[in-house]
Amino acid sequence: MAENTFLAGDANWWRQAVVYQIYPRSFKDSNADGLGDIPGITSKMAYLSHLGIDAVWLSPFYPSALADGGYDVDDYRNIDPRLGTLADFDDMVDAAHSADIRVFVDIVPNHSSNRHAWFKDALAAAPGSPERARYIFRDGKGVMGEIPPSDWPSHFGPTAWTRITEADGELGQWYLHLFAPEQPDFNWDNPEIIEDFKTTLRFWADRGVDGFRVDVAHALKKDMSEPLPSVTSFAMENIPLDGSNPLFDRDDVHEIYRGWRKVFNEYDPPRVAVAEAWVPAERRPQYARADELGQAFNFDLLGAPWSAKKFHHTIEFNIHLASKSKSSSTWVLSNHDVVRHATRYGLPKKVDFDKWLMSDGKVPELDLQQGLSRARAATMLIMALPGSTYIYQGEELGLFEVANIHDADLQDPMWLRGGKTRKGRDGCRVPLPWTKAGSSFGFGEGPSHLPQPAWFPAYAVEFEESQSGSTLKMYREMIHLRTQLQGAETLEWVHSRSKVVHFMRPGGWHSITNFGKKAVKLPAGNVMISSGPLLDGKLPANTTAWVTEHGVE
Ligand code: GLC
């Protein structure tokens, strides 16, 4: 049996870790205000421990007006009072560490919220002042400065510039926000910003935080030389490989992360980080270099259709990419920004998820059975790969996207900013069902901040605990087996039929996924686990099995 690599104090613990993403406001509410909170997370530590994960990553829990689900941060070194206190946070970290679970927090460096003290100071100060220089302010064009400084769009549409009213009551300068107007972009050419974020990293590392997830890591540095260049779309195709896009993936962004690495290395074991960088795959290794963040999210499988060929190539390519920076790859199928994978796989190929959500999930019809089988099979596949796996709260229950949230209940800025043409990401952020009945299905003792659907009881933790073969039980068993088997970070492809992905890990451990329609033969050995029932000893469609040649001790 291979060694368990997740030993306390091991500086490489992250390389093959299973990291569970918590969206704190939707995980567990301990004080009946409808919002999940930090004591709620602490109260579920036994659940997380039973799942067998190595770490949790908490999406933002900072004070925030929630203009973008907490990614609009008022104060980077505090807790939203609705979610708890710093003392609650310390208790949560202690409870996690006692359960051998590491803690990642989310750092949002591209922008603060418009309620951040520095942004308020900037509004009150004059153009050209040091207070304004912490953000990106520019005069408008046109005779009266009435035209935005450039044509740049925002992610949430329509424009990335908002004009302010100056202290004297007159319309004045414009500020940049690549996301919502409540999220003004910092000026990373200003050394004060560089120093302040190092203080924030140390603040959390000193409290025992083990790692950082870095939000939109590729956007911090911008080419602000006049005249500002035209950028009319944020599409990935417009990010070239030479770092020449004015807004994203510029080469000088890496200086920032080299500075951060020095901070991480002040600690023992060194703190770790993972970049959320939506850049062409070839550019990803730069963020993952050992003297920078160390790891970068690979979202390629998340975007891949259900196809053996696509999965095979994506896996091969990403293992190669990770090795370029001597990092390990990450595997992700769901997070708080995308339609849950059980739903994606239950819809026809090439469907437009935004349109599907706009039909309240009615057109085209979702094939629940296919969606869940494929989701389970895909997760079992990625769990067998070398590298770390990021799972998103609720996927261990097999949750589907909640597609029919009423317009009036939608919170995502995409909805209003996008002219009500895209519902956005609320459907994967609905509070978890813990119990089969009761107010908000055990999420809290009151209604939840986003409404839960009537089908939740069949996916509640309490229900799945009682069902053999439930998705929850499968996750627990799979993660347990994985930690027993995970050894060297190598993989050997096994030649197989075109609709099958079959590889072997050290110790004669096979993972086989059937992407086709016909059941296929399994290799000789012991079937340790399968994502669905076998058919006369064969592997049916939409199923993964793990087989050992020698059995597991
Ligand atoms: C990241 C987050 C997303 C947020 C955006 C702006 O992509 O994952 O939820 O809206 O950054 O902070």
From TrEMBL:
Residues 21-429 form the Glycosyl hydrolase family 13 catalytic domain. Keywords: Glycosidase, Hydrolase. It comes from the Bacteria. Gene3D superfamilies: Glycosidases, Oligo-1,6-glucosidase, Domain 2. The keyword Lipid biosynthesis does not apply. The keyword Acetylation does not apply. One of its GO terms (molecular function) is alpha-1,4-glucosidase activity. Its EC number is 3.2.1.20. GO terms for biological process: oligosaccharide catabolic process. Belongs to the glycosyl hydrolase 13 family. PANTHER family: ALPHA-AMYLASE FAMILY MEMBER (PTHR10357), NEUTRAL AND BASIC AMINO ACID TRANSPORT PROTEIN RBAT (PTHR10357:SF179). This is Alpha-glucosidase. It comes from Alpinimonas psychrophila.
